[in-house]
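Exercise 3.2. Students should predict the tertiary structure of the chain below and write it as structure tokens, then compare their answer with the key that follows.

Predict this chain's 3D structure.
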Amino acid sequence: MPVFRQPIKAIDAKPPRRVVDTRDYVRWGVDDQRPQQLLGLLAASSTGKVCTTTKAKFIEGNGLKDADFYKAVINPRGQTMDALLKLLADRESKLSGHALLVNLNLLGNPYSVYYLATENVRLGIPLDDGSIDYVMQLHPKVPGSKGKTQKPTLHLVFDPNEPAEQRAKRLASWPGGPEAYPGEVYCSFLDEAGYYPEQVYEPAEVDMETEARLKRSRRTDVRSGYSDKTVIVEYGTSNPTPEVMAANGVKYGSFVGEDGDRIMLLYADSQAMEPTIKTISAPDASKRYQTDGDALKADIRAVFQIPTLLYGEATAGKLGTTQEMEDATLYVQNMVVNTNQRSIERTLFNVFSTFQQPDQPNVPICPSGDYSIDNLSLAPVPDTDAETPAQKTLKALGTLSPLVANGVLNAMSQKQILELVGLQVDGPPAATPAPNGNAATSQG
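Answer key:
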């Protein structure tokens, strides 16, 4: 697993520390488009999409345990930790990794954080010791937009163990000043073999591709009403010119792959006055679609390790009991998404433990220091709006006449009245420990 750090020995050197070209980074896949291919695969496979969505919900859980931190604003755009956690959980479920852009103030501490799409982050060329001190942020061209593709942006890796004073020195000496500093990136990839993570669903990649093709094929059959396929044979030459093929394509239509219509045009050398038309009966493929679809769905779900019970096909009280649902939830929580959750929690601690809010820099953004995620469970959420016994009593007293209410209060003890308004009766002073370790006695 690559080690992300910055070489401390180069802190005082004038940046950049080494000459780096924007093309100097580790490619992700043969064509450097592997994450984009995986995301497209998941989007085309309905089962794959449901599996990753379900996994993301478990990773996100019920949000962060610290409610104040969960609602905190983390950048000038007004993005909250709530929104950031949802994005991190989504990419963890799909690409087993996430990245954050960390902007620093003049003191060298983080003051704003932005989510970076994992598929657009590339690791820099490793140093001699295998560590990585920079990453490249790719800027894919927006579909339909004009202009050239922007060059990748080089970001140094955010090292939480680096003293803030050293980051401040780097900002002060950066070409163009602190305003030109592009920010640093903290990235977390769950990788065991190479620099980029392998996905748990990759063994089912062919199954997800097949599922997408099956959907397109079924759509073609439904659109045609399961009509017969027609084959037209043109005699005269087996190697027609492009002009002849174009003309016949207009005349007959053409059958091209699974997205074509129901006509196939063939060519032969034997001549005839009229083309020979043959009909191929269309089988009833509806049952086959159902059988193949179920088989593909089972194979895809198997690699995600999420019990079928949690997809809604087997529900409590019908095909499964509440206990079975709880057991399945606990299994996913502990055996499937636990590693992803711990990765996000480590990121939040490393980035936000020294975060300084612009409007109140001396107030920690997470006062409790608890960066953990509240696990998803079937337990009902407590009703915080429910009335307490004291509130019910006060409400009842308000409905009585003053005379009757005074009579009720007179019948209550001093302790009951104080507890009713949220106060406690002062008792005797608590005993304080003596130097010898025994309880001290008060002198009257």
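Discussion points: Residues 389-420 form one domain. The first helix runs from residue 34 to 44.
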